[in-house]
Specification:
The complex is a heterodimer of chains A (about 170) and B (about 600). By secondary structure, chain A is of the alpha+beta class. Chain A has 2 domains: about 90 residues, Alpha-Beta Plaits, CATH 3.30.70; about 70 residues, ACT-like. Chain A, domain 2 (Alpha-Beta Plaits, 2-Layer Sandwich). Chain A contains 4 helices and 9 strands. In chain A, the strands form 2 sheets. In chain A, strands 5, 6, 7, 8 and 9 form a 5-stranded antiparallel sheet that branches. A 4-stranded antiparallel sheet of chain A has the order 2-3-1-4, with helices on one face. The relative contact order of chain A is 0.21. Chain B folds into 4 domains: about 170 residues, 3-Layer(aba) Sandwich (Rossmann fold), CATH 3.40.50; about 160 residues, TPP-binding domain (Rossmann fold, 3-Layer(aba) Sandwich); about 170 residues, Rossmann fold (3-Layer(aba) Sandwich); about 45 residues.
Chain lengths: ~170, ~600
């Protein structure tokens, strides 16, 4: 079975996954976030992490807006002194992943069904109590949305998602 | 050599050839001021409010092209710089602001006079630094100056905690590296060759080209290239408010300012052109008005060093990212000379027949004040303005001879900018006459800096265009709010003559053109203190022409009444004819002449 998360990141008219490579300085997150806020751009999700270079961090940002908005976002981000490079994953084939933790009601009578859903989406139950499961799922944002929708039937108590991270396919780097 | 952070900072400023600093001391800035105490070749100007310091550094930079430097303490000192930094940011002015900060170990603990000034100024600076370690100080100062003056310039703030100022480091001034390499900061200065060639072809093909030049060309020092392009190809030149002076405004090809209060002929020229060559401009809403009616028939070449300006407002047909001077000199290699065309003749004709005009009925008008000053100083003086009606009158009537002669807050429109900016300009250019045109509203916003001008014996000539009201707001209320004059009455103001005397300057009043002539004559003989001339003008005067906000050239309103002009161009017409524009201009002039005895503006 093909992994639903392995499809290339599609350039939808409304959402783009962009990589922002930044110098690892204090306050750089505030600068990037502030830029989005004051210029009225929408952040759908934001993931920040270290990279293979100790002095660089990578922000993976899912943004809403059409091509012209994305162009302005890219240009304005590039104006920030600490931004080293901005890349749009929709410029080529890429893989996208997001990790979600979902705490769902799991009455004994429902557990079998819930475990089936988890199995289909290649998730894992990583904690359980007499009334709940904590389920871990990774994949594209679409896949996580779908899992959440299906588990919603049983009552989701809490959900945490990392926001998407992505990587270009092949030798290309962002 | 072991040196304190404060000492190192001063040495770095010397390495950057900083000769003048505008500032105000305070608690955590004490080590910096102590180091300043025995630094002889850096002169500090003690202001009366930190906002004044920021505007002075700004005016200094605009008049000289050098980086302006201001200095303030933490907390309120730093926050008082905010308006000045925002002003400089909007107009791309290279300023380095240095602020004291509380000791690093109490940052975030709400210490006395603590404010998160790097957080506060992030949106209004090109970049800023909180220096947490004295070892980083020389590099950060060097980066600050490099970032401030290169690419699209802008203000940079250095926040220096007190413990960093007093910490010591083994350091030599010879270790200072000017213009350091910053891997993530590489402005594009050379334009793309193919794009430049495409621009040359578009210019070659154009039948009705117009150049629209802004502050970016002044910053780039591209006045020769702009003039050469205009003259070789006989292209008419209009400027933005920030572009005034890029070409001598008495040049036969100069059309004056474009936009809301621009000249009728410049606006009609742009409206009818088939090629708009936009150079170092950002298509401000005060220029374009309603965007879908702005230069609708024109292809656009847009040259700017900031890629984010390309396509931000108007999508160009030929975008060129690069330094204006460099791009234009490349472009000029492909430009063939051309004779003036019928298009030139047409606009020249409009220009001569429909000049900016104002009444000569024995009363004193702002336009008279501006024209008189211009004549009396041989168009050589630096003109710093405040913001409002007087600023627009000055933009229309003060015909600059050269770049950096015109100092005004364009983007942010900061009332209170004029006087401190004039002080900064005078410090930067001691051999030039510096004029300041202000209003009775604006002048009171940084009035305390009159003391600074007196103390440092700066012979500024400040003309207050006094209409006893907030004129520009009043104008909008008159035209668009049914004459409901809400909170614009400044009838209760201090006596500006006495007030100036109290500050140690010379105060004069003029209520007629003759009185103004006399006052100006006196003022021009003073060389050791500021002179303030309170110019009493009629309250009812409005700035015309005016294209109301969000409208187009078709909606241009004129001096004599506020009836709208007819559309100048038939949008469905297949071929362009100027008949409608001609008619509109005829009406425009007819209305103007209902004021008896209009006089032409100084040419």
């Amino acid at each position: 079975m093909a992994d639903p998360g392995a499809t290339a990141v599609k350039s939808s008219a409304q959402q783009h996954v962009i990589s922002v490579l930044v110098a690892n300085h204090p306050g750089v997150l505030a600068r990037v976030a502030g830029l989005f806020a004051r210029r009225g751009y929408n952040i759908e999700s934001l993931a920040v992490s270290i990279t293979d270079k100790p002095d660089m961090s990578r922000m993976t940002i899912v943004v809403g807006g059409d091509e012209s908005v994305l162009e302005q976002i890219t240009k304005q981000l590039n104006k920030l002194i600490e931004v080293v490079r901005v890349a749009d994953y929709s410029d080529g084939p890429a893989v996208e992943r997001e990790l979600g933790l979902i705490k769902v009601n799991a009455e004994p009578k429902n557990r079998g069904e819930i475990l089936q859903i988890v199995e289909v989406f290649r998730g894992r139950v990583i904690d359980m109590s007499d009334r709940t499961f904590v389920i871990e799922v990774t994949g594209s944002a679409d896949k996580l949305d779908k899992v959440a929708e299906l588990l919603g039937t049983y009552g989701i108590r809490e959900m945490v998602r990392t926001g998407a991270i992505a990587m270009a396919r092949g030798a290309r780097t962002a | 050599m072991s040196m304190t952070g404060a000492r190192i900072l001063l040495e770095c400023l010397r390495q950057e050839e900083v000769r003048h600093i505008f500032g105000y001391p305070g608690g955590v800035a004490l080590p910096l001021y102590d180091a300043l105490y025995d630094t002889e070749d850096v002169q500090h100007f003690l202001v009366r409010h930190e906002q004044g310091a920021a505007h002075m550094a700004d005016g200094y930079a605009r008049a000289s092209g050098k980086v302006g430097v201001c200095l303030a303490t933490s907390g309120p000192g730093a926050t008082n710089l905010v308006t000045g930094l925002a002003t400089a940011y909007m107009d791309s002015v290279p300023v380095v602001a240095i602020t004291g900060q509380v000791r690093t170990h109490v940052i975030g603990k709400d210490a006395f006079q603590e404010a998160d000034i790097t957080g506060i100024t992030a949106p209004i600076t090109k970049h800023n630094y909180l220096i947490k370690n004295v070892a980083d100080l020389p590099r950060m100062v060097a980066e600050a100056f490099h970032i401030a003056r290169t690419g699209r310039p802008g203000p940079v703030l250095l926040d220096v905690p007190m413990d960093v100022s007093i910490a010591t480091l083994d350091w030599e001034p010879s270790q200072y590296v000017r213009d350091p390499d910053i891997p993530s900061y590489k402005p594009t200065t050379r334009g793309h060759e193919r794009q430049i060639r495409k621009a040359a072809e578009a210019i070659d093909r154009a039948e009705r080209p117009v150049m629209f030049v802004g502050g970016g060309a002044i910053i780039s020092g591209a006045d020769e290239e702009v003039r050469e392009l205009a003259h070789r190809r006989n292209i008419l030149v209009t400027t933005s408010l920030m572009g005034k002076g890029i070409i001598d405004e008495t040049d036969p090809l100069a059309l004056g300012m474009l936009g809301m209060h621009g000249t009728a002929y410049a606006n009609h020229a742009v409206h009818n052109c088939d090629l708009l060559i936009a150079i170092g401009v950002r298509f401000d809403d005060r220029v374009t008005g309603r965007l879908d009616r702005f230069a609708t028939g024109a292809s656009v070449i847009h040259i700017d060093i900031d890629p984010a300006e390309i396509g931000k407002i108007r999508m160009p047909d030929v975008p060129i990212v690069g330094d204006v001077k460099s791009v234009l000199s490349e472009l000029l290699q492909h430009i063939r000379p051309a004779e003036p065309t019928e298009w030139n003749a047409k606009i020249r004709e409009w220009q001569e027949r429909f000049p900016l005009a104002y009444p000569s009925d024995g009363k004193l008008y702002a336009e008279y004040v501006i024209n008189r000053q211009m004549e009396a100083t041989g168009r050589d003086a630096i003109m710093a303005t405040d913001v409002g009606q007087h600023q627009m009158w000055a933009a229309q009537h003060y015909r600059c001879r050269r770049p950096r002669q015109w100092v005004t807050s364009g983007g942010l429109g900061t009332m209170g900018f004029g006087l401190p900016a004039a002080i900064g300009a005078q410090v930067a250019c001691p051999d030039k006459r510096v004029l300041c045109l202000s209003g009775d509203g604006s002048f009171q916003m940084c009035i305390q800096e009159l003391m600074t001008a007196t103390v440092y014996k700066l012979p500024l000539i400040v003309s207050i265009i006094n209409n006893r009201s907030l004129g520009m707001v009043r104008q909008w209320q008159e035209l668009f709010y049914n004459q409901r004059y809400s909170e614009v009455d400044l009838e209760a103001s201090p006596d500006f003559v006495k007030l100036t005397e109290a500050y140690g300057g010379i105060g004069l009043r003029a209520t007629t053109p003759e009185e103004y002539n006399q006052a100006l004559e006196i003022a021009l003989k003073v060389d050791d203190r500021p002179v303030v001339i309170d110019c009493v003008i009629p309250t009812e005067e409005l700035v015309y022409p005016m294209i109301p906000s969000g409208q187009s050239v078709d909606d241009m309103r004129t001096r004599a009444n506020i009836e709208e002009l007819k559309p100048s161009v038939d949008e469905d017409a297949e071929t362009w004819s100027f008949e409608d524009t001609e008619k509109a201009l005829e009406e425009y002039v007819a209305k103007n002449q209902t004021d008896d005895d209009l006089q032409k503006g100084e040419k």
